[in-house]
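Chain A, query sequence.
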Amino acid sequence: MEKKKRGERTSKNTEGPISPIHPKHFYDKIHILVKNKLWLQVFIALVLGIFIGFLIGPTFGFLDIETSKLIGEWASLPGIIFLKVIQMVVVPLIFVSIIIGITGAKNLRQLKRMGLTLAVYFIFTTIIAVIIAILLASIIQPGNYISKESINLANNGNTSVSQINSFSIPDFSEIPSFVEAIFPTNLFGSIVHGELLAIVFFAIIFGIALICINAKKSRPLISLFSSVQSICMTVIKWAMLLAPIAVFGMMIKLTTDFGLSTLLGLGTYVLTVLAGLLILIIFYFIIVFIFAKKTPFEFFRQIRDAQLLAFSTSSSAAVMPLSMKVSEEKLKVRPAVAQFVIPTGAVINMDGTALYQVIATMFLAQVFGIPLGITALLILVVTVVGASIGTPSTPGAGIAILAMILTGLGIPLTGIALILGVDRILDMSRTTINVTGDLTASVFIDKVVKEV
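Chain A, predicted structure.
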């Protein structure tokens, strides 16, 4: 009887008229949905930022240009702070993460296998990206859709193209000096000047040396580096609280600076680059499916946090801490692999950037009527593959490397003015592919190199 009464009370409490949904109840549901889902927060911020940017920017003309640009500058301040905080800890994080990843290997033989496999993988995927770019640019020939008036207009409006050319291709006699620069004589000097390639090289040598010495002597240093890594990740965690606000502000600045007409201009060139990046990401999906048996949808769902942040910030280095977290927690990659592959890939694995540089170079060659024969294309392939290794993982670095490549092939640098207006969108897109490539590499190495 007692059970029956209790059951009656329960059924009485659960039955009754359905009350209408209160606005607060709806808000609570949305809050629960968005909470702890960074990708959704960033996506909402991105869409809202673009929408508001178009409203106050030159597209609709509700505000004068000076006012809209001022609002854009202030709106981008959280984004600038976000990137500065990330940049503040990214160098020590890269350094200690590579060392921890190396010392996580059981022995030198396994480390050698992982390093060699990773190097071959990076070179192979970069060459694939370059081949895709050459084929697309040769078939579509986007430069043939640009009029001479567009070139003149771009050149007349340009004031800083000459300042972009801060890189130069070393000739044969300069190669020894170029190689020498990779070996840092002063680690702190390399840190101050942001020479990430030298820092990565030093970290690899340091990590290998730690494996070779007695475990009792290396353990305190490894423990120290592990603590530094935890501190850096804590700072990153604080910075990530700003991510949606940062994305919102940066999107407002982007759209108020350029407007809809500029972003939709040069459509054939933009679509050619985006088509190449799409083919490249399909190539990554195939790698993941073959080696990890993950479907493209599953892989995309697991990495979308890192992809959206990469798209918003245009910086592989800024996304690196999140990429490491995604690799370990969602892709289930072993920590020793993730902590070695992701920081290394963030510095030297730039497949999306390599693809963009080839298409941009061939596009401008077509615009200026400069034929690129087999020899020129081979030089382009070697240059892009080599340059992608040293490309800084910061926003806009691809343009500087592009200037270097154009100089080597005799293509006028003034052509850069033609593509600067749409480069921000392409920078965001190729950075997303770069980060996807790093995560794909971590999955590949995790499955191919065992017992690390």
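The chain has one domain: 61-258+267-448. Residues 1-34, 153-169 have pLDDT under 50 and may be disordered.
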